[in-house]
Q: What sequence folds into this?
């Protein structure tokens, strides 16, 4: 009996010890998992701090990407993406910055994190502003500001006021810029701010005060910002402060001092590979050298900028540089290079202007499409609600009919009740139909407004081109050099070829397509009036099928015809008593067009060395733009054949 008792006791003890061991093992495993998570979070925080303290953007990007790679919560991913976006903004790479910020914004929207959404929208608005997307930028900044205002997040509101002030400064809306920067200054008095928020506040205040003539106030804030940025080892903000200080000293006409500060800013931006900002500092130095009459040094720096900017396609940066080069060469007495860079400046302005118009048109179309989609969604939602209401009514009617069949005595009452319900349903359907009709009318009105806006844009482009044409006419009248006059007349002819396209677009119902017959005939009338004379009258023969081209194809075709006709007038008919130019446009199939320009003058090889070759280079450029292939037959005549796809 004692043995059995002992045996049972030992079994119970074994089971108890086994349970205790299992519990201890489970506790150990859980603590190991949580400990690993804590170690990962600590490493993530260290990497983020290292990226913010890094001496250059390359190290900062490396640490931030490492943090993103080990981030295991949505909040950590949002933070790492936000830090990467801010680094690329400081670097001047706004496309990459926007890509990281957009991903972070999607995370915030998914988690319904309103504060995160507001801050990211402010940064996205900055990227859009730097890319000249001004309408989209203002929308993002205001949307982000309203979210932060709803949450009463004062630091975010201060940052929003700083960014809005910078937005209005870029558009030269100084009253609005001053109002926002004063609001930001007022908020800063009641807050303990970190350097990453103080530095943009003081630097933007310095820039606004400088451009509004308050030079001493600008210097005050710039030197404060410079001291803070040096204490924090923030190279980008150091360079920004140095650049602002130099700008003030330039306005005070202390040119050598301004040049020293510009050079310090350039060296920092060069060190951090912030090429956009570095180009700005180089341009500022070149401008100061020009004021010091050191035009040769100024031109060397400007041409260095042009090589970098043209390679990266930064036409807005090149535009001002061409104007400065034109001024410098004119001061040096080199009129030929002065006119060359005047032409390049006008060409760059034209590209920027057309790009801005294209962006504006794209924004208008996007707004129109979004409004159209919203109306369609509302319409579909109403239709679904009506369908659900019909289904519910049918279900109720079916139940009541079954009750009516079972309750013969109440049949008449049930039928009367159903008739009343059907009458009400019809009334509601009529009301819904009226609402849908009103929505359709609103959509038609919106379409008319959009079409009017597009026609207005074409009208403005045409007027601006005519204005440039008139300026060139004045320059021709004042110029005595035959070579310069011919160059300016060539520019007039090319501007008129583009102007006719916009004139046709805004004067027709179709604001997107141009009739080939009307456009080419109008262009030939202009060229006939410009080139023909009593001494040599050229006869035009045309055989043009009426094909509808878009704006880009129309401009390219017009420029090619203009160059070929001008070249024929200038060189082809030296010994021809009855000169003729034939122009043919025909549709080879539904997807391909052929353009033929032919004259009965001398062959191309006999006179090709007389000109500069600019015309044929332009023809090659526009043929490439059309994705076309051309063939030139120049044996005892000149025949140009171009085949290109119809877009």
A:
């Amino acid at each position: 009996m004692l043995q059995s008792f002992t045996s049972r006791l030992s079994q119970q003890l074994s089971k108890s010890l086994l349970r205790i061991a299992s519990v201890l093992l489970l506790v150990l495993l859980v603590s190991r998992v949580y400990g690993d998570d804590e170690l990962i979070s600590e490493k993530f925080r260290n990497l983020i701090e290292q990226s913010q303290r890094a001496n250059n953007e390359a190290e900062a990007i490396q640490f931030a990407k490492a943090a993103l790679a080990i981030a295991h919560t949505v909040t950590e991913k949002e933070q790492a993406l936000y830090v990467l976006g801010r680094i690329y903004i400081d670097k001047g790479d706004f496309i990459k910055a926007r890509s990281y910020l957009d991903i972070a914004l999607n995370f915030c929207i998914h988690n319904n994190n309103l504060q995160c959404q507001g801050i990211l929208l402010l940064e996205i608005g900055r990227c859009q502003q730097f890319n000249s997307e001004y309408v989209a930028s203002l929308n993002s900044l205001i949307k982000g500001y309203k979210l932060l205002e709803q949450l009463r997040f004062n630091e975010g509101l201060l940052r929003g006021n700083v960014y809005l002030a910078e937005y209005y400064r870029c558009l030269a809306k100084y009253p609005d810029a001053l109002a926002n920067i004063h609001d930001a200054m007022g908020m800063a008095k009641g807050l303990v701010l970190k350097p990453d928020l103080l530095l943009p506040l003081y630097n933007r205040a310095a820039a606004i005060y400088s451009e509004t003539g308050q030079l001493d106030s600008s210097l005050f804030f710039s030197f404060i910002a410079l001291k803070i940025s040096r204490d924090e080892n923030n190279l980008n903000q150091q360079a920004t402060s140095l650049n602002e200080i130099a700008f003030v000293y330039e306005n005070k006409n202390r040119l050598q001092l301004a040049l020293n500060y510009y050079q310090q800013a350039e060296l920092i931006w060069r060190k951090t590979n912030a090429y956009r900002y570095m180009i700005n500092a180089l341009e500022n130095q070149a401008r100061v050298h020009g004021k010091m009459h050191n035009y040769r040094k100024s031109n060397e720096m400007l041409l260095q900028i042009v090589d970098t900017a043209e390679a990266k396609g930064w036409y807005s940066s090149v535009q001002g540089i061409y104007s400065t080069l034109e001024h410098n060469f004119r001061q040096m007495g080199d009129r030929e290079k002065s006119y060359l860079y005047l032409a390049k400046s006008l060409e760059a302005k034209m590209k920027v202007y057309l790009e801005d118009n294209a962006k504006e048109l794209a924004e208008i179309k996007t707004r129109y499409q979004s409004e159209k989609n919203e109306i369609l969604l509302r319409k579909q939602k109403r239709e679904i609600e009506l369908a659900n209401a019909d289904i519910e009514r049918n279900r109720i009617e079916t139940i009541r009919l079954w009750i009516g069949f079972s309750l013969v005595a109440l049949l008449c009452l049930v039928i009367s009740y159903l008739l009343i319900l059907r009458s009400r349903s019809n009334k509601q359907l009529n009301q819904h139909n009226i609402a849908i009709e009103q929505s359709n009318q609103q959509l038609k009105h919106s379409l008319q407004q959009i079409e009017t806006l597009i026609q207005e844009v074409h009208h403005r482009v045409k007027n601006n081109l005519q204005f440039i044409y008139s300026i060139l006419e004045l320059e021709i009248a004042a110029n005595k050099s035959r070579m310069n006059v011919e160059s300016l007349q060539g520019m007039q002819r090319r501007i008129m070829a583009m102007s006719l396209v916009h004139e046709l677009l805004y004067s027709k119902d179709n604001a997107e397509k141009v009739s080939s017959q009307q456009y080419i005939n109008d262009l030939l009338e202009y060229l006939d009036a410009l080139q023909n004379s009593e001494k040599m009258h050229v006869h035009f023969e045309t055989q043009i099928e009426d094909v509808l081209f878009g704006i880009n194809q129309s401009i390219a075709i017009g420029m090619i015809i203009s160059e070929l006709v001008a070249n024929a007038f200038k060189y082809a008919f030296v010994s021809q008593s009855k000169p003729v130019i034939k122009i043919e446009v025909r549709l080879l199939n539904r997807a391909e067009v052929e353009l033929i320009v032919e004259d009965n003058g001398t062959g191309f090889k006999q006179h090709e060395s007389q000109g500069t070759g600019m015309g044929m280079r332009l023809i090659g450029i526009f043929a490439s733009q059309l994705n076309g292939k051309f063939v030139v037959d120049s044996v005892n005549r000149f025949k140009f054949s171009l085949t290109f796809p119809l877009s």
